[in-house]
From TrEMBL, chains A, B:
It comes from the Bacteria. It comes from Arthrobacter hankyongi. This is MarR family transcriptional regulator. Residues 6-138 form the HTH marR-type domain. Gene3D superfamilies: Winged helix-like DNA-binding domain superfamily/Winged helix DNA-binding domain.
Length: 166, 166
DNA sequence: TGTTCATATTTAGATATTCTAACTATTAGC
DNA sequence: GCTAATAGTTAGAATATCTAAATATGAACA
């Protein structure tokens, strides 16, 4: 296997993706919430309310970590916990109105900052980036784990611009 | 301004980049060092030895944070601090042989894992991703800050596959 | 029905990360 | 040599993260 150049592409592309991601975050650090908190807010904005375990899985942390971060966000009034009537062991975590406002603002600032850089590329370069987006969405769908599947906003909506991510 | 579609592209592309980045990290969490530590190791692998302040700038954290993380990595034997003879206030931070081995291993695992996903795309999709890489490299160069410029490995080497990033 | 195992989450305790403010040491300008 | 700027560390506090253990609910079944 691997006569298709995937390994070579991975070695070139993965570092680039990492650096662009880091650059975006460095240029728009965000205000008064920590990195972990803003990541949770963005995940909830993007995927809608999640159970505690789903949130932990998406964030790539253990459940006690999710519990801890959510507890602080609740104290800040940015998210709320509601019991799941179907399964009373479970907890649904969702944004409050104030949480939505705050994370929308950060997301908009990051989009604007990134757009400024994109505007300095040539139209051809922007076209190439645009053309690569469906392949990226396909990559994401390949990773889809039934355990942390998106609910209302499924992966295809990532291309609609309706979702905002950290 | 912004009649070139940069804002719309940003709104679509930035979330995708974020999700691909998070997916890669979630699929290869790394062993015994923390996220902050592996990020520093990868930065040093990619950019070569850095001064403490440069390292903090690249990582997007304050200097005391860099000091703290480096101190732990020194204790683990993965990085070393050397005095700069030119400027005796400054400290150079670089990988030890053992540090290089460890971060090479993690980088290779992430590359292989990502390559497995890429291998499930069509050849056309891989071609589109490949074609978008120069534009990404250009984006990175636009962000170049003289304060945190790469030394031996400049940004163009990101396309050579010689560097490995978190 | 009640016992037992599995699942979802929290609590407890430890280590790591991160910040701001204040401190030390060195360099640069005059 | 003063004085100010620069590079880094130390101190102290809040947050984030982990593993192990506890709690509570759900599911299976004799």
């Amino acid at each position: 296997m691997n006569t298709d150049g995937s390994m070579e592409l991975s070695r070139q592309l993965r570092p680039l993706l990492t650096r662009v991601y880091q650059m975006v975050r460095r240029r728009s650090p965000g205000w008064d919430v920590t990195a972990a908190q803003s990541s949770v807010l963005t995940t909830l904005l993007d995927r809608g309310p999640l159970r505690m375990g789903e949130l932990a899985a998406v964030e790539g942390v253990r459940m006690p970590t999710a519990t801890s971060v959510v507890a602080r966000l609740v104290k800040l009034g940015l998210v709320e916990r509601t019991a799941d009537p179907q399964d009373r062991r479970a907890v649904q975590v969702g944004l409050t109105a104030q949480g939505r406002i705050q994370i929308d603002a950060l997301s908009a600032e990051r989009n604007a900052n990134f757009a400024e850089l994109l505007g300095r590329l040539s139209a051809e370069e922007r076209g190439l980036l645009q053309a690569a987006m469906p392949a990226m969405a396909h990559l994401l769908s390949l990773d889809a784990d039934p355990n942390l599947a998106a609910s209302e906003n499924d992966l295809s909506t990532a291309l609609e611009g309706a979702s905002n991510h950290e």
